[in-house]
Design a protein that fits this description.
Blueprint lengths: L20 E3 L5 E3 L24 E11 L4 E11 L5 E10 L2 E13 L2 E11 L2 E12 L5 E9 L4 E11 L5 E10 L2 E12 L5 E10 L2 E13 L2 E11 L2 E12 L5 E10 L2 E12 L3 E10 L2 E12 L5 E9 L4 E13 L16 E6 L6 E8 L3 E8 L5 E10 L2 E8 L3
Length: 415
């Protein structure tokens, strides 16, 4: 029933994300919500990413929490589109005192079916109040070249953060320059540089900070591939004058090239030690994602996620369970609804990306919200991970099938 999956691992160590909605260039929606993880007092995130099948679009996404005997409403999202099937508005509501109450909405403005402005508004005193916005610019090849992040001061929009993207002749993203707004000018903050192999695979991701007019190394990712499938991600941090091992991820696939296992190891006292194992299982209309934590000398269950699909290949439910010590216990679930539409929109030239482009996480530093964007040219599994400043992994935020196009993820950190 389901299309063959092509696994792509986009390993973005700097991404700190909470996905509320992502706008794709083919006008599909990916949504996301918080999922709380009781184990180890960690806050983790499993995306509710729900890429609709062809000619279907997401109308709503609702999160419910398990009370011990029944499912209780928590929050939801509703999505609205224009005549070209572009997402124009998403509304987030919270369930409070047995009623749905507005919380936040996003409004998107397009030019030639490219997003040029996105505005976030909060609900206050029975009205929508501007909170922040992003302004987008594109180069002649329709690559996103600049994004300006602004805050609403109550009277006007004030610059806060921007990033500038550079591309090579193949339209591969090769550099992101981050700048903060200070003293009425843009001041350089940091940059990321990307190197690809002859197949277009990302092999190096270098992060540097601008300190006293000098570029200082922060951290680096080096990726190893087998037949264009990533099999290892080695993350190093810069200490004094050299690179030091920090974390290593190893990836295993089944015979259908579906991601089957990811093992995370940490470098301690000149040795690699197990930390976490993610396992993936594929059934007729369900996929399972299971997290295990290394405890002394064995893998211990931690979290479990089931994605359930309808006959149209739309995900209609994401069920999250936690390990109680002896059995899996319900924790939360996400429910989705869709509608079928007639495709009337013709893509602009170069709307479908020809490569993997990682844009930026902004603002940096964030408080408490951060946004990242990326594009992919081949549908497949996308992985986002969160690390702290020492290189310790905080959470695996996204490990899901994703469609071709541009994606935007927003994370609001409460911890």
């Amino acid at each position: 029933m389901f299309k063959a999956r092509v696994v792509i691992q986009c390993l973005l160590y700097h991404v700190l994300i909470f996905s509320q909605e992502q706008v794709l260039s083919n006008h599909q929606i990916i949504s996301g919500e918080f999922i709380l993880n009781n184990n180890n007092n960690q806050f983790s995130y499993e995306t509710t990413s729900s890429t609709p099948a062809d000619n279907w679009r997401l109308l709503s996404a609702k999160v419910e929490l398990w009370s011990g005997s029944s499912w209780l409403n928590n929050f939801d999202y509703s999505y609205y589109y224009d005549e070209n099937n572009n997402l124009t508005e998403s509304v987030n509501r919270n369930w409070i005192n047995n009623n749905w109450q507005n919380y936040r909405r996003n409004i998107y403005v397009y030019s030639d079916n490219y997003v040029i402005e996105s505005v976030v508004q909060d609900w206050s005193n029975n009205d929508w109040i501007d909170f922040n916005r992003r302004l987008y610019q594109y180069d002649d090849d329709n690559n996103e070249s600049q994004v300006i992040f602004q805050h609403w001061t109550g009277n006007e929009w004030e610059n806060f953060y921007q990033y500038l993207n550079s591309y090579n002749e193949n339209n591969f993203l090769i550099e992101i320059l981050y700048q903060n707004w200070s003293d009425e000018i843009w001041q350089i903050s940091s940059k990321r540089q990307y190197i690809y192999d002859h197949n277009g695979n990302l092999v190096e991701d270098l992060h540097q900070s601008w300190v006293d007019s000098t570029w200082i190394n922060n951290n680096i990712h080096n990726y190893t591939y087998d037949n264009n499938h990533v099999i290892e991600d080695l993350f190093k941090i810069w200490v004094d004058t050299s690179w030091v091992n920090s974390i290593k991820y190893q990836y295993l696939y089944n015979q259908d090239l579906e991601l089957e296992e990811v093992i995370k190891r940490s470098w301690v006292d000149n040795n690699w030690y197990n930390d976490q194992c993610n396992n993936y299982f594929y059934y007729n209309d369900t996929t399972e994602f299971r997290i295990q934590i290394w405890d002394s000398d064995t893998w211990m269950n931690s979290s479990q996620y089931f994605s359930i699909y309808d006959v149209n290949e739309n995900r209609i439910e994401l069920l999250h369970k936690e390990w109680s010590g002896s059995e899996w216990v319900n924790y939360s679930r996400n429910l989705y609804s869709y509608e079928e539409f007639l495709e009337v929109y013709s893509e602009p030239n170069n709307a479908i990306p020809t490569n993997f482009n990682l844009f930026t996480a902004f603002p940096n530093p964030f408080n408490p919200k951060i946004t990242v964007q990326y594009t992919i040219s081949v549908p497949g599994n996308i992985t986002f991970k969160v690390y702290d400043i020492t290189g310790k992994e905080i959470a695996t935020l996204l490990n899901e099938y994703s469609s071709i196009g541009q994606h935007e993820i927003v994370w609001v950190a409460n911890d």
